[in-house]
């Protein structure tokens, strides 16, 4: 399922969704948390991205595994090390994307329901901003290591 799309390796195609949507959610969730006046405009975008980002990152991870198994399973040396480094960011990125997705959904819910009050809203906002930073870090590291695996010397 995650092997090919129209005869092309799926991973280079699928990763673009993760690489674009993850930072977008990180920025919008942080803005949503830190600038309450933007919430009326951003709640649908944050909600949609909170669901889409973990799915995109999961698909990128699975397609990367399929690509490695099909074309790079016996690679060693410098290329093998670069692939292993890139692969090492898959699980932390997926965990960070899931955390950011769940916290973003929680933040939208808490901010729209008055019964939770300010202290809960502040805690969820702080956790969401922290998750946005972590997810941004891991998507940057995963993307950079993947580019270096392909294009690096």
UniProtKB/TrEMBL annotation:
Under which name does UniProt file this protein?
Answer: Uncharacterized protein
Q: Which UniProt keywords apply?
A: Membrane, Transmembrane, Transmembrane helix
Q: Domain of life here?
A: Bacteria
**What does the organism's lineage look like at the top?**
Bacteria, Bacillati, Actinomycetota, Actinomycetes, Streptosporangiales
Q: What species is this protein from?
A: Streptosporangium canum
Transmembrane intervals? 13-34, 41-60, 89-108, 120-140
């Amino acid at each position: 399922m995650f092997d090919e799309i129209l005869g092309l390796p799926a991973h280079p195609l699928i990763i673009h969704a993760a690489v674009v949507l993850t930072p977008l959610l990180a920025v919008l969730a942080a803005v949503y948390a830190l600038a309450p006046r933007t919430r009326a405009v951003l709640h649908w975008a944050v909600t949609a991205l909170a669901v889409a980002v973990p799915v995109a990152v999961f698909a990128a991870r699975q397609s990367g595994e399929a690509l490695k198994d099909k074309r790079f399973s016996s690679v060693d040396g410098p290329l093998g090390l670069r692939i292993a480094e890139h692969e090492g960011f898959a699980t932390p990125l997926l965990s960070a994307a899931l955390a950011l997705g769940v916290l973003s959904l929680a933040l939208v819910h808490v901010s729209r329901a008055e019964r939770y009050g300010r202290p809960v809203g502040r805690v969820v906002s702080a956790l969401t901003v922290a998750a946005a930073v972590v997810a941004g870090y891991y998507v940057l590291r995963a993307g950079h290591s993947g580019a270096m695996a392909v294009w690096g010397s």
